[in-house]
Design goal:
This protein is α/β, with parallel strands linked by helices. 31% of the residues lie in helices and 25% in strands.
Length: 269
């Protein structure tokens, strides 16, 4: 708890205004920041106990400002287990954002499709997840002031936010799905057999993030909304070799729609 308190105190010295909503931006999805009227930008490396993002396209800044009429804090760049961090380090910023006063968490990520109906650059609102990460950020001594030892996960993703997002997507004519996100450790992409397996167990998309942050958010009673951008196709007959440039290009194509969806969803809160 003292590390969370120290990071929170440092940030509040730099920016004393309480943010209402926290936003985590995934690979290739950083331009939502352009919609924010920025009051303060803090590099991760300057915040006590904060990890530093090592992934290409992740800027590594905590942005404070106004989106619509709401005060927000935006993580421009996130952390992953495959970077070598512990799960507690991966999710440390979510703890800090809650300590700063956020009331809801909004998350985006890049993901591979498992559902044959999906196409590149589609948006998929996450309505549930399957956790295949090798460790949990909740393992070890429970932080009793922040949440219960055994948090319930039957409402992992807020149903009201999902409903509002689907209405907004329909109004804006943005192609948008709902589905189950499978979180795996990475950093290698899946084999053909693994794609088949993940589909068999109920997945619609697969990625290497989001679930750890969601677990910590729900542990603290923080409602969570998450959306995936489909950046590669893990469906038999559509699988091809890809690299990070391909992922970023597919994310960029979907970014305008995702940005408007997030912006309008936050404006409704």
């Amino acid at each position: 708890m003292h590390k969370i308190s120290e990071a929170t105190s440092y940030i509040q010295q730099q920016y004393p205004t309480q943010p209402l909503f926290g936003i985590i931006l995934g690979t290739g999805l950083g331009s939502l920041v352009n919609e924010v009227k920025i009051d303060k930008s803090i590099n991760y490396q300057n915040i006590p106990h904060f990890p530093i993002s090592t992934v290409e396209s992740h800027s590594g800044r905590l942005i404070f400002g106004t989106l619509g009429n709401a005060k927000v804090v935006v993580m421009q760049g996130r952390f992953h287990y495959y970077e070598g961090y512990t799960m507690k380090e991966v999710t440390f910023p979510v703890r800090v954002m809650k300590n700063l006063g956020i009331t809801k968490l909004f998350v985006s990520n890049a993901a591979g499709s498992l559902n044959p109906a999906y196409e590149l650059s589609d948006l998929m609102i996450i309505n549930d997840h399957i956790n295949l990460q090798p460790d949990s950020p909740l393992r070890g001594a429970n932080l009793d002031p922040m949440g219960p030892r055994f948090p319930d996960m039957s409402d992992a993703y807020d149903r009201e936010l999902i409903g509002q997002a689907m209405e907004i997507a329909a109004d804006l004519r943005i192609p948008c799905r709902q589905g189950v996100y499978v979180s795996v450790p990475g950093p290698s992409l899946e084999t053909v057999a693994e794609y088949k397996y993940l589909r068999v167990i109920g997945g619609d998309a697969v990625g290497m993030s989001t679930v750890p942050e969601n677990l910590v958010a729900r542990h603290m009673g923080l409602p969570c909304f998450a959306v995936s951008v489909i950046t590669d196709l893990g469906v038999p007959g559509k699988i091809k070799k890809i690299n990070i440039d391909d992922v970023i290009a597919a994310a960029k194509a979907a970014e305008p729609g995702m940005t408007q969806l997030m912006k309008q969803l936050i404006a409704r809160q």
